[in-house]
Design brief:
The complex is a heterodimer of chains A (314) and B (226). Chain A has 314 residues and is α/β, with parallel strands linked by helices. Chain A contains eleven helices and eight strands. Helices cover 40% and strands 13% of the residues of chain A. Chain A has an eight-stranded parallel β-barrel with strand order 1-2-3-4-5-6-7-8, surrounded by six helices. In chain A, helix 9 packs across helix 10. With 226 residues, chain B is of the alpha/beta class. Chain B folds into two domains: 117 residues, Rossmann fold, CATH 3.40.50.2300; 62 residues, no CATH class. Chain B is 29% helix and 23% strand. A four-stranded parallel sheet of chain B has the order 3-2-4-5, sandwiched between helices. In chain B, strands 1-6-7 form a three-stranded antiparallel sheet. In chain B, strand 9 and strand 10 form a beta hairpin. The longest helix of chain B has 17 residues. At the A-B interface, helix 5 and helix 6 of A face strand 8 and helix 7 of B.
């Protein structure tokens, strides 16, 4: 079921994608405190340069300002948030309550995630909730939107019209399962996907080819995840310490070869080259730029990647 | 079987600090097999307690007895007279047995000597691995005989999550990813279609105390229950 204009949510991101534009989204991590100013400052770097901003939800299981609260700050600042929600920290009652709440305040995009295990965060002894998983969360939001019903079956007064997103990791093994998991998320009701950070382009090309062959890229919009490397240390950390991350040696060698003081520049150069390829890649509808604690670099990256000015769709 | 781990000795000492005559009650079934609460372990605990309390200048008299099972009324009945001689009982059974013992003798302080640690298999002597969380809605038919509720650190029904890491779980490189194993086994058996389907949100059945009455049986009258 769609709204009158044929859109499911009417979010800017949805309109951009459905108009056939190459989408460009960003990300913002809320602060570990009550600093609204910090959120607003970070947001200024993204304003006008991205179509929507992911607001992370206690990322890496570290307590931060609630993703809904930081999302509302963005709405007030005239940016469009993509409200992230993980299954780790709340049960189906709290989740649905938060979805109603954010929608009331103008949030129209959501990213449905499992959430990192609490073991890695600042409260390693916390009990993980996982009342529902990311697949079931997608299905729940879809039911709320399209059927106007809570998971429990009761009717919702004025159902939330959310553009539903989820993550996909093309690099986890076994590789052959990845498209099937994507297919499951589409069947559950996902409208768009933002992938794990891509460094192994060859593997990603293969993943997209399989998704194209299965007709999946016609059923949902896939935004390729890009995170520019800031240093050789970061690249090595991602390669060795971050589960499911695939950083080929060529990337590390290229950064090492950049010379002193030029590594970050090389990282941005690699990211821009990737974005150029994604623009031409069949089945890729946009890029999700995760410039981790590097929000101030987004305007420059967007400019150099040739994605500015951002289109407006009425 | 149900497995358990003995509580730290200091914790046991603290529980029993004010009591002068205590009975250690071992259990001859699961906890005996997993080497924590059978006859041998009950005797050891009794001896340890007496020695430690003597050293602490707070002597205690400790006896031990091991019942066939503490989760069956008929075996608990063996203590009906004996328990009257003691200030307190300390049970080495699983949480079920400890509670049944306390229920049998409601006027008597009953303490746990072990921490119950789940339903596990015997991998080798002294090495047990949890396999079941008794969720009361078994999905093993569709997951290749591997339990995602127990084996997946997030208990996901539609795994694997983004934390799957080259066949292992993000929480520990030595912990296999349940969903990696499920995929592997079902792929070998040509049954991947089972996990291509979405498993819908679970109606949890373990969120309140459960009673199980098998078909053909009924709950006994109250008088009979005692």
């Amino acid at each position: 079921m769609s709204t009158d204009n044929g859109l499911k949510s009417g979010s800017n991101l949805e309109k951009i994608l459905k108009a056939g534009h190459f989408a460009f989204t960003g990300e913002l991590g809320p602060p570990r405190g009550t600093g609204a100013k910090e959120v607003i400052e970070k947001a200024q770097h993204l304003k006008g340069n991205v179509d929507s901003v992911n607001i992370t939800d206690n990322q890496t299981a570290v307590v931060r300002m609630a993703s809904w609260a930081a999302s509302l700050l963005l709405v007030q600042e005239g940016l469009e948030p993509n409200f992230q929600m993980v299954c780790r920290d709340r049960n189906r009652l709290a989740m649905q309550a938060d979805i109603l709440g954010v929608y009331t305040h103008g949030v129209k995009n959501m990213l449905c995630l499992s959430g990192d295990h609490a073991k890695f965060g600042d409260h390693p002894d916390a009990k993980g909730v996982f009342d529902i998983d990311s697949m079931q969360l997608i299905a729940m939001v879809k039911q709320m939107r399209d059927e106007g019903k809570f998971l429990g079956g009761a009717e919702i007064e004025h159902p939330p019209k959310i553009f539903i997103g989820a993550a996909s990791n093309p690099f986890a093994v076994p590789h052959e399962w990845r498209v099937h998991r994507l297919a499951k998320k589409i069947e559950a009701g996902v409208d768009f996907i933002q992938t794990q950070c891509i460094y192994n382009m060859e593997r990603f090309r293969q993943f997209i080819k399989e998704a194209n062959d299965m007709g999946l890229t016609e059923k949902c919009f896939i935004l390729a995840g890009v995170t520019p490397m800031k240093s050789v240390g970061m690249a090595k950390y991602m390669k060795n310490k971050v589960p499911g991350m695939d950083v080929p040696d060529e990337i590390i060698e290229r950064l090492q070869g950049a010379g002193k003081g030029k590594v970050a520049e090389e990282g941005i150069k690699i990211a821009c080259e990737q974005i150029e390829e994604f623009k031409e890649m069949k089945g890729v509808a946009g890029v999700h730029l995760m410039a981790i604690e590097w929000e101030h670099k987004v305007p420059e990256i967007a400019e150099r990647a040739g994605v500015l000015p951002r289109p407006t769709v009425e | 079987m149900i497995v358990a781990k003995r509580k730290p000795f200091d914790e046991i000492m603290e529980m029993l600090e004010e009591y002068k005559k205590v009975l250690v009650v071992g259990c001859g079934t699961c906890v005996a097999v997993c080497l924590v609460g059978g006859e041998k372990e009950a005797n050891i605990l009794a001896t340890e307690l007496e020695m430690a309390r003597k050293l602490a200048d707070n002597p205690i008299e400790v006896d031990s007895v091991t019942l066939e099972r503490q989760c069956d009324r008929e075996y608990l009945a063996e203590l009906d007279d004996k328990q009257t001689d003691y200030d307190a009982l300390i049970s080495m059974a699983c949480g079920v047995g400890i509670q049944f013992l306390a229920e049998r003798f409601p006027d008597k302080p009953v303490f746990p000597a072990v921490d119950t640690a789940g339903l596990a298999v015997n991998q080798a002597v002294g090495w047990y691995e949890e396999r079941c969380r008794s969720c009361q809605q078994c999905v093993l038919a569709w997951t290749g005989g591997i339990c995602p509720v127990t084996m997946c650190a997030k208990g996901l029904y539609n795994g694997p999550c983004g934390g799957t890491n080259l066949g292992n779980c993000e929480i520990d490189p030595d912990q296999p990813c349940a969903w990696y194993l499920i995929h592997e086994r079902l792929a070998k058996q040509g049954r991947l279609h089972h996990i291509k389907q979405i498993y819908e949100a679970v109606g949890w059945r373990d969120t309140m105390p459960r009673t199980l009455i098998q078909p053909g049986y009924k709950k006994p009258e109250k008088e009979e229950a005692k």
